Amino acid sequence: MDRVCLVTGGGSGIGKAICKKVANEGAKVIVADLLLEKAEMVSDEIRSEGGEAVPIQVDVTQFLDVKQMVQKAENVFDRIDVLVNNAGWSSVESFLESNESTWDKEIDINLKGVLYTCKTVLPIMMKQGYGKVINISSEAGVVGAASKVVYSAAKGGVISFTKALAREMARHNITVNSISPGVTKTPLLNELESGKPGLIAKLEKLVPLRRLAEPEDIANTVCLFASYEGDYITGQTLSVSGGITMN
Ligand code: NAD
């Protein structure tokens, strides 16, 4: 993959797997994360394996921060072919117990952050006459998740935004798609399992394919959308959830 990929939230979990996978396929990667040391660790790993990566600190909820990140990325690699909006966060609490500050945080990171990066990166892709935007949504945004109500709304917003933006961008040869992971085995889930032994086994029983997603399952799907083979796919939401959602 002879491309420059910018991945937000690239320092951990699914984002880290995406950075490593696209680098392994030959892409030059910008590992962008709120926590610079995590982005640096992922970049170092990629470079030690012979790949090309640059860490950049960013808070996707701050428009100015996003503009500075994109400027830095453009200065280093001169172009951005693939934007992966992966940074995300959710609380776990019932809607009636939740409050406005959590709603703002969930909407700002999961939805507004995607608007900021797209607003900044799309003009670059338009100049190039080519680009791919891949938004990491969630099955919560497709079917809804109890105790993650506002997160579900924000991720549902990402899915609708993806479709509408895909229509506007098609004439510029830019595709916009989203991926909805099911429950994925990230460090956070392993932490939850240590507090609640048996949680993973219980969740696995709900999945037709009888296992939870590995971060690499999501990364593989990003590669499909990011590759030349995916050039004719736009405005789609692909559930990568072992069959929990079947459209
Ligand atoms: P994670 O917490 O392991 O990683 C998220 C990364 O985003 C972290 O490195 C964090 O520092 C970074 N980040 C957080 N806020 C940021 C901000 N404001 N600006 C920049 N970076 C920020 O999470 P994950 O489980 O790997 O999730 C990745 C994406 O996948 C998220 O969008 C999440 O909503 C989505 N998702 C995850 C699951 C799952 O089960 N893990 C399921 C469905 C969807």
Automatic annotation (TrEMBL):
The signal peptide, as residue positions, is: none
Family listed: Belongs to the short-chain dehydrogenases/reductases (SDR) family.
UniProt-listed NCBIfam families: PRK07231.1 (NF005559)
Full protein name: SDR family NAD(P)-dependent oxidoreductase
From which organism does this entry originate?
Answer: Brevibacillus brevis (Bacillus brevis)
